[in-house]
Write a structure and sequence with these properties.
Layout (H helix, E strand, L loop, with lengths): L1 E10 L3 H10 L3 E10 L14 E8 L5 E6 L12 E4 L22 E2 L25 E6 L2 H10 L3 E2 L9 E6 L8 E7 L16 E6 L2 H11 L4 E9 L2 E9 L5 E7 L3
Parallel strand pairs: 1-4, 7-10, 11-14
Antiparallel strand pairs: 1-11, 2-3, 3-4, 5-6, 5-7, 8-9, 9-10, 12-13, 13-14
């Protein structure tokens, strides 16, 4: 059973400076782990595999957590699938980039995305800056009905304050812990986007907490595009986690996380 949103991943080329920006913006830095072994099981989902990677877990009191990952995202590679929307978007980060121009989002504003990075969140040098809270994301999709059904299988439900249309629908995940909640706007688009990888610039992966990783992976893998990684163990911040990964209908990456029972 999926019980909440654990975090959204954001790639950084300079973890130390990115952590400082998040800390200055009011995020609580739960931990920073440098040179953590990078499981080889992830190889199908990365463009350039490195046996080590560094991560930092940044918690917000008003939105979902952000996991900063230093994997060495390459300029020109496809950006991540997930586009945050911010109620408190800082000045200078309220423009739509060319690859999202024409998307009609009536509430909030996009974090600007280009082929290199998430502008206003990660600058051209891969350094996080101007960090607001994240409590809503936009996910472009080709087949709205299929994506809607997929995310409902992941525990999202129709948002009570929004009506669906042929161009989009509004979902939300309600969890016991407020910081595990998330609103998702599915937006129908006509063109396929390149498949993102875990080391893509921007926000490439959404992580969900589960109490039964095998059941949830089996259910979601059938409803996604068929690509998935079987569960494997990883030790982060002294704790052993069981992880699995899969792609949704539009090749967006999801991570399932189950804490090992001790």
């Amino acid at each position: 059973m999926i019980i909440g949103i654990d975090h959204i991943a954001l790639n950084s080329l300079c973890l130390e400076k990115s952590v400082k920006y998040f800390s200055d913006a009011g995020y609580k830095i739960k931990f920073v782990n440098n040179d953590v072994p990078n499981p080889r099981a992830k190889i199908p989902f990365v463009a350039n595999y490195d046996p080590l990677h560094s991560i930092a877990f940044c918690q917000s009191s008003n939105g979902i957590a952000v996991e900063l990952i230093q994997l060495g995202a390459l300029p020109g590679s496809p950006s991540g699938s997930y586009f945050p929307v911010f109620n408190n978007l800082p000045k200078g980060a309220n423009l739509l980039a060319s690859n999202v121009t024409g998307w009609n989002i009536p509430e909030g504003k996009f974090c600007q995305i280009d082929e290199f990075s998430a502008i206003g969140i990660v600058d051209k040098n891969g350094i996080a800056s101007n960090v607001p809270d994240i409590n809503r994301i936009v996910l472009p999709c080709r087949d709205l009905a299929k994506s809607h059904a997929f995310w409902q299988k992941a525990g999202f439900r129709d948002h009570p304050d929004a009506s669906a249309s042929e161009n989009g629908s509004e979902l939300h995940f309600r969890a016991i812990v407020p910081q595990w909640n998330l609103r998702m706007s599915l937006l129908r688009v006509d063109k396929d986007r390149p498949a993102p990888m875990l080391d893509s610039p921007g926000f490439p992966c959404l992580a969900l907490l589960t109490t039964n990783i095998d059941d949830d992976l089996g259910r979601l893998a059938k409803a996604g595009n068929g690509e998935f990684l079987n569960p494997f163990n990883i030790t982060v911040n002294g704790k052993t986690l069981r992880l699995a990964m899969l792609r949704g209908p539009d090749r967006e990456i999801l991570e399932l996380i189950q804490f090992n029972r001790e």
